[in-house]
Amino acid sequence: MLVRIGLLVLALAAAFAPLPAPLVEAWYARGVYPSLQPAVTGLSNQVPFAVFDVLVAGVLLGLGLAIARIVRGPRKGGRLSATARVVGNVIALAAIVYLAFLLLWGLNYRRVPLERRVDFSRGRVTPAAARSLTARVVGRVNALQRLLPRAAWPDWPAVAKELSPSYSRVQQQLGAAWTARPGVPKWSLLSFYFERAAVDGMPDPFLLEVLVNRSLLPFERPAVLAHEWAHLAGYAGESEASFVGWLACLQGPPAAEYSAHLSLLWHVLPGLPAPEREGILRRLDPRARDDLRAIAARVASTSPAVRKVAWRAYDSYLKANRVEQGVRSYGEAVDLLIGTRLSDTWVPALARVPGP
Predict the structure, then answer these.
(1) I need a labelling partner for 273 at 20 to 30 A (CA). Which of 60, 104, 132, 327 fits?
(2) Above 60 in pLDDT, residue 327?
(3) HSE toward the beta carbon, residue 59, CA cutoff 13 A
(4) CA-CA distances (angstroms) from residue 144 to 253, 258, 264, 344?
(5) Residue 225 to residues 20, 94, 97, 182, 200: CA-CA distances in angstroms?
(6) Is the confidence at residue 40, as pLDDT, over 90?
(7) Which pLDDT score, from 0 to 100, does residue 190 have?
(8) Is the pTM of this model over 0.85?
(9) Burial of 352: CB neighbours in 10 Å, binned 0-12, 13-18, 19+
(10) ∠ at Cα 86 (84, 89), nearest 5°?
(11) Is residue 100 a contact partner of residue 304, using CB atoms and an 8 Å limit?
């Protein structure tokens, strides 16, 4: 009982303790996590299936056995006593899982925000800057058409191989003293859920592997993989992972660059007035318009009810991990890109003095 209470108290303290971001940055993000991620991802990469599925199955099996024990009733002590013991064990297990989550990945949510580590200014985020970015994206998308492998888009292993150099390079450009190990993209039993909830992928926060939606279109794969790899590199927030993933693709091969540009348009276009949006689409190469329509059709084929429940749950998860904007943080990625000083080749400038 004392052990159970101790675990619960420790988990609650870890959840609510106001750890200073600079301390987390120095102790965890630049100390503990860099020593864990390459080793853990290296191990999970050796397994050809999603180890996360095994973890989920084990938890569900344990809960099922615990419920069965209550229903069956104990031989001694009565059902109330057995229920109390099972509930106590479940709470202790939940505390252990939460503490493992924080240690293995979750504390990345409490790092110094990326916008304080790069040369970012909210004053640069203007409608004129957004239009300039959109025009640049449209021009490059049209120019890329002759370079794209339309007949045979790279499969997942080829995407991972082609994207690895720029992924490592962007991490160094952002001031990292280490390089995260890329995760092998894997399908999961959760793919059934991903395909109905419009979830493109997720990092496994325990085994630090990457799970992807197998229904993604070929030209979506590089941007999604780079986004999930950014999570593995310690960029837990969705806006930061999108920013880092876009840079990795924009500095990568043509297929990856095109994937990032389509992703940018997917994020930017819905926020524009209809006449302006239609004008941009008219300037796009017809093949790019067809690709955007194909993405829209894939998303539309998902289940509205499942999407609503899934994104509401994820919104709660993000807010519980101190991401105040919740799922709205996805939209912050474009602001981060516009507000950060970037070279013509998409190299980010660092803050002269990183913020606290």
Answers:
(1) 327
(2) no
(3) 12
(4) 11, 7, 15, 16
(5) 31, 30, 26, 9, 9
(6) yes
(7) 87
(8) yes
(9) exposed
(10) 110
(11) no
